[in-house]
Amino acid sequence: MLDRPPFSRRILDALPMTIWSVDLDGRITAANRSWSRFAEENGAPAIAPEQAVTGCSVFDSVVDDASREQIERAMTLLRDHNVPVVRWEFPCNSPDEERVFLMQVTALRDEAQVTGYVFATVDITPSHRSREALINTGIALAEAISLDRVYEEVALQLRRAVPSTGFVIALADDETAQFHITHQQGYEGVADAQPLERRLARTWLEALATGHVVREHSSAGLEITAPLISAEGVLGAITLCAERIESDQLLEEAERVLAVIAAQTAVAIERSWLVRRVEQKRRLEAIGEVAAGVAHELRNPLFGISSAAQMLRFGAREDPVVDKNVGRILREVERLNRMVTSLLEFGRPNTVHLLPADPELVWDDILEGERPRLDGKQLTLRRTRPEQPVRCLLDPEQLGQVFRNILVNACDAAPDGSELLLASQLSPVGGWRCRLTNGGPVIPPDVLPHVFEFFYSTKSGGTGIGLALCQRIMDEHGGAIVIDSVPEIGTTLTLTLPPTAAS
Fold this sequence. Notes:
Elements: H1 6-14, E1 18-23, E2 28-31, H2 33-41, H3 50-53, H4 65-80, E3 86-91, E4 100-110, E5 113-123, H5 125-143, H6 147-161, E6 164-172, E7 179-186, H7 196-210, E8 214-218, E9 221-230, E10 233-242, H8 248-315, H9 320-347, E11 355-357, H10 359-369, H11 371-376, E12 380-384, E13 392-394, H12 396-413, E14 419-426, E15 432-438, H13 466-476, E16 480-486, E17 490-497
Parallel strand pairs: 12-14
Antiparallel strand pairs: 1-2, 1-5, 3-4, 4-5, 6-7, 6-10, 8-9, 9-10, 11-13, 14-15, 15-17, 16-17
Helix pairs in contact: 5-6, 5-8, 6-8, 8-9, 10-12, 12-13
């Protein structure tokens, strides 16, 4: 190798990997410039010059028996079994970081005769970290149930794989295409006055539109964004603000890692949502069983109280004080009866028969039946509906119960003579969505998260069962019910149903 023309030697010196040749006895015969740089940078200046290692045994630097056996095995395979190349990975830590290198050994041949060996090492630490991160992420996310746990594991593995200064996960509203950051680390010191959500929205949209990783330079640095897309649809995006990446190869590796972790994250997020829905369903079913038992136990005593109160009123018609208090008793009994009825309804096994149908027709029936209620408060209903017929899997009776419940609540909350808005449309991702908005008082922010809880009610005479039952029915339909309350707009209940399999 030393006898080759200088041009060949210059080529070897220009290579970034460390290369050295050894004879059949394992003595080093030459080493390229990368060898010298590596030795200097890693605290071994004494062996940095090529002259210092020439003639030394390749085994002198081996510190353990396993490495010695690996080198001997490689030389034997190349010499006696005509193997073209032998590779293995090995740790080679510097004083400040853990590293992994790839060793490659090939044979020097003079025609068919092996005359020596060429050893080459490549730093594969970034690829090794990436591989570990992907494996660890897959394992961790498979065990993660809550969203918070999912976000923590993703952030941990990304930091290990790609040095970064910032990291965000944003989920998209499938209707408005607006993004909301659900997890954030770093970015605190970004001098960009533009809110982070608004600034990154364009990049997120681009990533979702293309389905590929997007890179962009900003005041924060190099930002790499990967879409969160699952089998069920678009979820959002992950953005990583990377530290200085020295080569295109490392940048491509970082993008690949982010893309894979994003795919794993999308699956984990959907699984977390599913687990939450299942747990909620089980909780509601357990509550329903208890509620039905309580309702049966209450019904007979309430009947007795009502009968006794009626007899008392009949016997004391001439006493206005008694009559007034008996009337109060009967009103409370009636309220309790309504609660008992609701309890029995909630505790009844939910037998849902889903058939392809148009939910707008269900609304037609409910609005016709509740017309007296609207007229009684002089309420105007402004309705918009899809131009084309809608097909969803639904149970008309049960869905009608949901529609009636939210309409009654809207009527009760709306000021007399005001307007209700009922707007339905086809969802951008398929299926059906409708909103019922009233201009009544805004629900306080501390109350809003509890409105679907069983027995939670702020309405006078309310049972706290109606909306909980609505949520259960919508879950059985594979849909959702969401409430929002905004000043100067009012309270809006949004219902969604998935499309039929045929659509």
